[in-house]
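Re: weekly structure request thread

Next one in the queue (360 aa):
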Amino acid sequence: MAKITLDKLAHSYLPNPGHEDDWALKEMTHVWEDGAAYALLGSSGCGKSTLLNIISGLLQPSQGRILFGDTDVTHAPTAARNIAQVFQFPVVYDTMSVRDNLAFPLRNRGESPAYVAERVQEIARMIGMEDMLNRKARGLTADAKQKISLGRGMVRKDVNALLFDEPLTVIDPHMKWELRTQLKSLHNEFGHTMIYVTHDQTEALTFADKVVVMYDGRVVQIGTPEELFETPEHTFVGYFIGSPGMNVIPAKVEGDRAYIDGAEIALGQGYGPMGGRVEIGVRPEYARLSDSEGLPVNIRRVEDVGRHKVIRADFFGTDINIIAGEDDEIGADMTRVAFDPARVNVYADDWRVKPTGAAA
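Done, posted below.
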């Protein structure tokens, strides 16, 4: 296991990057704790797989350093980093049995036959392949082969880190929850440093101690699921986390009030002067329909999703989503939306602005 330090790390696939947009990874400095489980979360092309490949040694960064503990591994080959990596698509030895695929990393390191047999049986049980240990990998489904890849990644206890690059892409939906649970159990039992790349917020939030949200080559927030939900540090985090995502509305903010097209919205705290593009962000969970207060809206439709209702509304061309209880009545006169002042965040040029004090 190892603490992982990214020191002024950046990468470009171009030989002479000159513009900010030339960098696939913008400069970042972060320390990832020894033994923690992290999820790298973001949409396609945000740089998460590039970052993972730099950590694993498959890619050399254009600038900066990577340290495992106190050891600089920036230029060390993958084999010297003592990691295990599971890729998006299964990588197995087709001519070997499932048993031999799982045993290969342990035999390669000279472990005793008794230990190898015990550990292979344990991992096979975790991935649900005990009855297939003697079958050749050739001819197995992609789903089964990826479970072998996951098992082979987990079979060693002494690795510095376990790296997963969207490993459940080819797994049947009904198996995903079970395998995520098993990965989490493995982490709790052995305390490996784990980094899990995904574009699926459910996978990230259920797997990780901390989620690393990436956008346009930047890490825009590292936090617990609760922190990402309650205080998104960037509007992308608010949009990407949650279903529906955070409502983001252009506004003018003065002190503890926001002004939107002539309407006044109370804020839970006061704010100093700010420039740039100012917006407020509020989760649909903290919005409610009203017949007397808040912003005037046009309700387009109501979606009953079983546990609650999602109300899709429009405020002069700006979409606003509201989550109401399953039993909440929606009257014809409820044409305004009000926000919980304590749950409203303020943003300038997409970044969250810290309040200066309590509301007056």
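The chain has two domains: 4-240, 247-358. The mean pLDDT is 90.
Next request, please.
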